[in-house]
């Protein structure tokens, strides 16, 4: 952790709430809060959303079935894209990066 300057994440999608977070030194957080347009006046989550995010995170830390289903969905998505001839880059995470192909070059394939 001593080499990591900023940790950022989302509370949307997988957690079923909204918003996001950053964790960093106070000066970095203050700089983001002051200069990033998406954070100005919108940095505090409503209490109900904060509680919902906390409960969702606690649940998903131990929810083996949901985690297995999510991993299976990623595998299926990658396989489906590859069958369609869409190049998928290798990754160890749930993110499915797709390589962009120039449309003109695609017609020649």
In a few lines, what is going on in this structure?
Helix content is 48%, strand content 9%.
What does this structure look like?
The protein is mainly α and 109 residues long. Helix content is 48%, strand content 9%. It has four helices and two strands, in the order ββαααα. The chain has helices spanning 26-35, 47-62, 64-83, 103-108; strands spanning 6-10, 20-24. Strands 1-2 form a two-stranded antiparallel ribbon. It is extended and about 45 Å long. The protein starts with 5 loop residues before the first strand and ends with a helix. The model has no long low-confidence stretch (mean pLDDT 84).
Characteristic terms for this protein:
mainly alpha; 4 helices; 48% helix; two-stranded antiparallel ribbon
